[in-house]
Each structure stands twice: as structure tokens, then as C-alpha cells.
Amino acid sequence: MFPNMLDHYQFQLTRMLEAEQYGEARELLQFLLHCQGEDQRHYEEWSNLLKWVEMAFPESLSGTNGSQTTDNEDDLRRQALDPGEQDEEYINQVLYIMKHHPMIDQQMLALERAALLDSAEVSREIRSWLVEASLHPVVQFKALQCLRKRGELGNVSMERLGEQVSLEIEATPLSLDDFPQPVLAVLERVERVTEIIDASLPHFARELWKECLQFLYGTSTYSWMLDERDEMVDCFAAALHLALATAAYGTADEEAIREAYGITESLRFRYEQACRMMRHVAEGSQESGPDSEP
User: Fold this and answer.
1) Per-residue model confidence as pLDDT tens digits over 24-71
2) DSSP code of residue 170
3) According to CATH, where is 1.10.472 located in the chain?
4) Would you identify the CATH topology of the domain 176-284?
């Protein structure tokens, strides 16, 4: 695993633990322990942390199939985020962090807590915040997910990446697998190609693509990504692979990547557009404050 990838996984692990996503943290720790070539101290840290998670949260090990495991982890997560008694002070604190915390991770954690609050005022606050505030695109997406989890219906109009959009709350994907098949086909294509290069790349590709989809969801660029023709899937897949290799290794053999995905001269223009889209997401993802311009 290369340094950039290690940094990415360490960030993801910290984020999961802060958000009390212990089931997901356990899976990531197990994955990291199977990676080769890292400093021994990393393996010791991951092993000790995995033992702590499994001892402190044994329920995260239950379930014999994927759907059952997911249900159990959702229940655990809900229990961890739900404070039980919700007085006005607690509700106001959650909303204040959601709106004003300088770190995106903390804003998103507040949104997850907000999804469990028993107050109709919370939904009204989130709706007006989405419409009036200048928010990072991923925070906007998480706010839409929060509204859907709260059972809200209807559309929310907002400015998103410089566009005025109107998005249906109940259509907001709650997981990567909820996104339309054309964009999932892009990820599947990259996973097939990269798994024979480096066993860790498919996991990294999934995280990168999920971030991209959350960033662009509902925009004109996202609509363009829903084109299900094979050549369009190839263009986006090649662009994702290029961004993935650059992030992981610091460099990429673009000619070899184009060849792997069959990017001919006739597809070069669309491919370049997809590459620009990925660069835009990478640059925009570096913004971290609640008042960042999308």
C-alpha cells in the first residue's frame, strides 16, 4: 500500500470511530491487517484497535449474511447515536454543531444525530439551512439523507455547485448501492480491472467513487453520468481509474489506462470531460469549512 492510500485509510478509520461506526471500522481494520508491506507498528495498532472494537461492541460481529449484518450494524449505530432523553438543550447543541462547526466530519456526525431527534422543528431547520447557507456539496447530500431518514417528503430547492436544483428528498440514495445502475457499472468496471493490479485498489475505488457521487448528486454533471451506453461507462471508468492511481501512487500511466478501457480517439473528448470532472471533485473535496463555497 502506498503512502497516499495509507493516509486515506487512516482518515477513514478515524472518521468511522468518531461517528461510532464500529461495524464499518471493524471491517476496515480487518482489511488493513491483510495488506502487505506496512510498518510493523501499524499492524500492532490496527490489531489492538480491532480487539478493542470486538470486545467493546460484540454485537457488531453478529449476523450470518450481508443483509442481517447490515441490519444489526444499523441498529447498533442508531443506539450509539441516540441519546435517549432529548431535551431542548441537546437538540439545540446538535443543530448548532450542524450549522457552525468548522469541520465537515463533525457537521456530518451532527446530521446523523439529527436524524434521530424527535422534533418537527429539526426538519424545518435543516430545510431552511439547505436553502439559505453556502454548504459543501457533500454536507448538502448528507443533509438530504438526514431529511429522508426523518421521513420527510417533497422537494428542496438549493444552489448546488453553481446550479439551481430541486431535489426530491425521498429519492436520495442512503447507500452506494442505492445509486442508479449506470454509475454503479462504472465502479464495477474499475473493480474488475484494478483487482488484478493491487488487491487494495477496489476498496479505495469504492470510497473515491462514493465521494464523487455524493459531491455531484443532482447536478447537470450527475445527470450526464447516468448515460448507460457502454462507451460512456468506459470513459467514466477510465477517468476514475486515472484519479485512483494518481491518488494512490502519485502518478499514473494514462496511456495504459486508456488502452485498458478501450478509450479510442472517438471517445477521447468524453474521456477528457470525465477526467476534468474527477479533478473538480478532488479539488472541491479539499474544502473543509461550513462556509466553503461549493
Assistant:
1) 888 888 877 776 667 788 888 888 888 888 887 776 565 434 444 445
2) G
3) 176-284
4) Cyclin A; domain 1 (1.10.472)
